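pls design
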């Protein structure tokens, strides 16, 4: 017996696809919850770095302008932080804007900075997480730098997860800033160049990074399928594990995050040995 479709245009593919999508949405929360329960609590990362990549490609794919992609990406930040809390992450570093990105045309850069400012202040207003800007704030427009500092001040006493907001951030610039800070500090107490050369150490440089006093990232996640660091946490990630996800950042889901955590937990960390 041949079936005929009651749907305009014939075929069952449209309603079937909708039903499959509805079933998937209904079942995924239970599936994800089971995945979370199965995570080995003694093998989870404490500090995660996330490269939020793919906003522009996502916008192009949906036929929207670049600013729409950045807004969609910004809207996914709060859910990510909630997922991190769920599994006990203590520190999250989010790379929102690199030093290279500051060279983008003003027509793209200015709306992006507005979106970043709004997103960061929204996180701060919740007083749920401690916001800590990391990057060369002196390279940013004065208003953007002021908003980032405002978010930090608003959340200074919050007893919650530490969220590093990397804006105007570049790994090479961070290391150069750390060395510059050491030189100025030592010059201020009369240390000669010879004395400094004899005593400078890895530990001393680490104490002058933007993330000083924090643990190095255990896991670095990059979305969008790109498999490179691009200058993210160059010094701190020397012994980190890396996870590259095909999903563009606005499409990055809780299940993608859990899979990244599970992949990390399944690895044997050698710490260079």
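designed seq:
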């Amino acid at each position: 017996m041949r079936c005929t479709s009651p749907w305009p245009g014939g075929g069952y593919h449209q309603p079937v696809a909708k039903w499959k999508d509805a079933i998937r949405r209904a079942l995924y929360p239970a599936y994800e919850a089971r995945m979370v329960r199965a995570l080995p609590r003694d093998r989870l990362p404490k500090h995660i770095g996330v490269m939020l990549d793919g906003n522009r490609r996502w916008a192009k794919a949906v036929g929207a302008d670049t600013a729409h992609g950045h807004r969609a990406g910004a809207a996914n930040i709060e859910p990510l932080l909630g997922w991190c809390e769920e599994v006990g992450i203590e520190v999250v570093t989010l790379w929102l804007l690199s030093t290279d990105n500051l060279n983008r045309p003003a027509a793209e850069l200015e709306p992006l900075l507005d979106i970043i400012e709004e997103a960061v202040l929204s996180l701060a207003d919740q007083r749920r997480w401690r916001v800590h800007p990391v990057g060369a704030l002196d390279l940013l427009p004065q208003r953007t730098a002021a908003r980032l500092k405002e978010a930090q001040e608003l959340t200074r006493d919050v007893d919650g997860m530490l969220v590093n907001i990397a804006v105007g951030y570049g790994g090479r610039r961070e290391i150069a800033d750390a060395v510059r800070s050491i030189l100025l500090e030592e010059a201020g107490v009369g240390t000669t160049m010879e004395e400094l050369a004899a005593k400078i150490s890895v530990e001393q440089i680490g104490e002058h990074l933007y993330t000083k006093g924090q643990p190095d990232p255990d896991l670095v996640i990059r979305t969008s399928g790109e498999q490179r660091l691009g200058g993210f946490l160059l010094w701190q990630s020397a012994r980190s594990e890396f996870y590259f996800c095909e999903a563009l950042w606005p499409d990055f889901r809780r299940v993608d995050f859990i899979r990244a955590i599970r992949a990390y937990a399944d690895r044997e960390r050698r710490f260079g040995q």
